[in-house]
Design a protein that fits this description.
Rossmann fold, 260 residues, globular, alpha/beta
């Protein structure tokens, strides 16, 4: 479904991602992991056509169902984002307007992509929140972002992203700002979305344990390139690169030997 072919992305002439290639099949979950600054977020922002700071794809191509996304017009991007392709950010609460109620933002989002009447859009928002296991969806719609916990705000972000059942969900560190228990809940819900809707998911994460639990395949990035890739079994088995082994060695473990 999604194919990235030898993509290079530059900021002010300096490459942040170099000759990167990958494929994502329908209903597949792939994680991009690696150290900070390795180019993970740049990859998914390039897929969504939202490179920051003057970044641009200088080489290669990004294909969705065989069509290049790099040739999209602004109008084509407007139709695609939020419907065919959606994104969940690291802190969805930061993407919500702090002085507007969640329901006002949610219904505006729905009506931007459809001709749905406001009352019907409100009901759709409540329904999506409850599908994200947020009880009292109507009350949440009437709340301001600061009145919700981090986990609740993140579920709001996922609910908005999944409103139109996108074929591709991009997630940029979707659990890093959450406590461990809430992280596990969000990960399970993302897996449920794949199972229920057949959504393909491309996840950026520093958490190799989460990537192994969530993903069908893992790509390890270093210095803007794919240093390693494979199934979770391949990567957890040590992979092929020293970068993968260093990441595995950095994962905390219980027990160990104490110095005398």
């Amino acid at each position: 479904m999604l194919e990235i072919q030898n993509m290079t992305v530059c900021y002010q002439g300096q490459p942040a991602v170099k000759n990167f290639s990958m494929r994502l099949q329908a209903g597949e979950i792939v994680s991009l992991t690696g150290e900070s600054g390795s180019g993970k977020t740049t990859v998914i922002r390039a897929v969504l056509g939202l490179l920051a700071g003057g970044g641009r794809v200088t080489q290669g191509d990004i294909l969705l169902d065989g069509k290049s996304l790099l040739t999209n017009t602004p109008e084509e991007w407007r139709r695609l984002r939020g419907t065919e392709i959606s994104m969940v950010f690291q802190d969805s609460g930061a993407m919500l307007n702090p002085i507007r109620r969640v329901g006002d933002v949610f219904t505006e989002y729905i009506r931007t992509h459809s001709r749905m009447p406001k009352a019907e859009a409100w009901k759709r928002g409540v329904s999506m929140l409850e599908q994200m296991h947020l009880s009292g969806g109507g009350s949440i719609m009437k709340s301001y972002p600061f009145q919700l916990s981090g986990g609740m705000r993140q579920r709001v972000g996922i609910a908005m992203a999944m409103t139109f059942r996108p074929r591709l969900l991009l997630a940029d560190e979707p659990t890093s700002a959450l406590d461990v228990t809430t992280q596990a809940q969000i990960v399970r819900q993302m897996m449920e979305l794949r199972d229920e809707y057949g959504t393909s998911i491309l996840v950026v994460t520093h958490n190799l344990g989460m990537a192994a639990y969530l993903s069908d395949r893992i790509i390890v990035m270093k210095d803007g390139q794919a240093a390693d890739s494979g199934t979770r079994e391949d990567i957890l088995g040590g992979g092929r690169s020293s970068c993968t082994r260093e990441l595995l060695d950095a994962v905390p473990s219980l027990g160990g030997v104490r110095d005398a």
